[in-house]
Amino acid sequence: MKDESRNPTGSFKDRFCAVAVSKAARAGARTVAVASTGNQGASLAAYAAAAGLGCVVLTLETLPEPLRVAMEIMGAHVVAVPTPADRWKVLREGVEREGWFPVSNYLAPPAGSNYYGIEGYKTIAYEIWEQLGRRAPRAVAVPTCYGDGLYGIWKGFRELKAMGLIEEPPRMIAAEISGWLTRSLEEGKPWEGESAVRSSAAFNLLASRSTWQALAALRESRGEAVQVGEDAILSMQQTLARREGIYGEASGVAALAALGDLARKGQAGEAGEVVAVLTSAGMKDPAATARTLPPLRRAEPTLKAVMGAIP
Amino acid sequence: MKDESRNPTGSFKDRFCAVAVSKAARAGARTVAVASTGNQGASLAAYAAAAGLGCVVLTLETLPEPLRVAMEIMGAHVVAVPTPADRWKVLREGVEREGWFPVSNYLAPPAGSNYYGIEGYKTIAYEIWEQLGRRAPRAVAVPTCYGDGLYGIWKGFRELKAMGLIEEPPRMIAAEISGWLTRSLEEGKPWEGESAVRSSAAFNLLASRSTWQALAALRESRGEAVQVGEDAILSMQQTLARREGIYGEASGVAALAALGDLARKGQAGEAGEVVAVLTSAGMKDPAATARTLPPLRRAEPTLKAVMGAIP
After folding, report:
1. Which ipTM value was assigned to this complex?
2. Which residues on B lie below 8 Å from A301 (Cβ)?
3. How far does A26 lie from chain B, in Å, by closest CA?
4. pLDDT averaged over every residue in chain A
5. Which of A78, A247, A249, A297 is best to mutate for the B interface (most B CBs within 10 A)?
6. Cβ of A306 and B94 within 8 Å?
7. What's the pLDDT tens digit per position in B109-143?
8. Residues B169 and B49 in one domain
């Protein structure tokens, strides 16, 4: 497992924002802006604050409160608009009329995110290579929404190969919840239909369609997509927390859950050494986790009462 | 600033629990237990999970929900009892009758915490020394409740001096909210009166009295205590977040707030190079921060409406 939950704001988006905000500052931008209901907004708020840039986050009412608080205490202007597509529309207007530097997609259909930021994900590939003793694993599994992370990590390994530092890049495994990349691989182009998945504890993986870059990473690496179910994700979140003491966000553990599914189907053996990227810390959306837990237990102040309250 | 908010569970308690849980496992304990409404419980839950030990957290109803969720998803048994003193009473019973390995105080009056765990804080001193190029600062400020961290960090510097690695250990500055250590220094013994501070966003610093070890760290280092007010803490939390992109817990930024107070009084100059320890990340108690922020802004999906919603 490559644990990205310990980055400055607790997600792999810090890799992205470190590069995107540096580029924005260099380009003379005064305001960076993003369409986000989650980790990318919180990460952008932090890097924008450190760089002295203004930050606008276009979001939805469903934004988890801890993430809203983190964004706003760091000085970001957070505004909810009615629908997911509205965020891109307003962001595009802001880019064109106000000179906002965009650090997420703002096109429809989505065309991937800020391409400087995506370069930041390459450092995950470099670190995996370094931490494995200067070699690539056989496969790398990544929780995937529009595929920025999946593509960026793939690009890092591809460049390691181009530099002659590895023999063979890993197969990329996209852990998705919509099933679109699975369809896209079958059809050879991004899938544009409607998803049956409308809500999820792994809400950060809810994509409105798939992208070319995610498909490219899977095709070029002879990889695959695994559609992970809600139960598998919540179960993996608990298993990781109880066995390792690592509390990952539901979206963040999707790659581990996908590998669990592959193992159960007897398909993990072929991959050899596999790295799953844990993309995000759970503390940013405790409400989703709380729904899987009983309410706070209370007891009279005696050992007997406390022991009786413990399952 | 020494940033301890990026430890595995987001607080300096991870230094403590890494050592305390290792000791518990070596001593053959099957269950570790703690009286905590905050970071120590979350940290203990994580290290106990990783070590395969059971974990009991005796807490209060005021426990922030994100911390409860983190503890329980990691397998800890969390039980609220009516009063702060009840936690110590039940913990003592559990230690004596159930063989729980205690990782917090369970005596009245409080006598400091698990002394193996406190050794873990010494690594903060070692790292400050290393990060400053193998020397000690003139002063180190630490957010202080019962003073485990203050004392442990002081002990680390004292031992660096004993090993001949530094000339002079730093003056220790306790950032407190109760005012007890200030009184204790005046009177030369731990202060046992009642505090006027009953609630605070920095609730992790609410101590029911002061301890000998905190007083020892201050006296031996010719240090001082600074009583920090609620406004100074909340203001520093926002300043740190907006300037640096670091969202610290209210309790965690108390040392920075104390240095701000000293600077305003013109007393910071005497100290020379000063390190403030940021002890904890803010994501664990966003509700306290939310009270300082307006509610989520909403706008129709036009740039004009969004710009109008931004202050």
Report:
1. 0.93
2. 81-83, 86-87, 89-90
3. 18
4. 94
5. A247
6. yes
7. 888 789 999 999 999 999 999 999 999 999 999 99
8. no
CA angle A164, A167, A171 (to 5 degrees): 120
Residue A193 and residue A61 share a domain: no
Q: What is the mean pLDDT of chain B?
A: 94
Shared-domain flag, residues B54 and B147: no
- Residue that terminates a domain, selected from A43, A74, A109: A109
Least CB–CB distance from B47: residue in A63, A78, A245: A245
> Are B73 and A238 contacting, i.e. CB atoms less than 8 angstroms apart?
yes
**What is the chain B residue with the closest CA to A80?**
B298
My answer on whether B93 and B181 are in the same domain is: no
DSSP B238-271: HHHHHHH---B-TGGGHHHHHHHHHHHTT-SGGG
CA distance A241 to chain B (A): 4
Report the residue count for chain A: 311
Give the model's confidence band at A268: pLDDT under 50 very low, under 70 low, under 90 confident, else very high: low
User: How is residue B164 written in tokens?
Assistant: 């001949």
Domain count, chain A: 2
Q: Are residues A195 and A95 in the same domain?
A: no
Q: Cβ of A69 and B303 within 8 Å?
A: no
Last residue of a domain, one of A63, A83, A109: A109
- Are B139 and B283 contained in the same domain? yes
- The string of pLDDT tens digits covering residues B200-212 is 899 889 888 888 9
Is B35 part of a structural domain of the chain? yes
For A35, the domain range is: 2-109
Where does the pLDDT of residue B268 fall: very low under 50, low under 70, confident under 90, or very high at 90 and above?
Answer: low
Candidates B58, B66, B238; nearest CB to A66 = B66
B110 backbone dihedrals φ, ψ, rounded to 5°? -60, 140
User: Could you tell me if B222 and B153 lie in one domain?
Assistant: yes
**pLDDT of B103:** 96
Q: The domain that contains A10 carries what CATH number? A: 3.40.50.1100
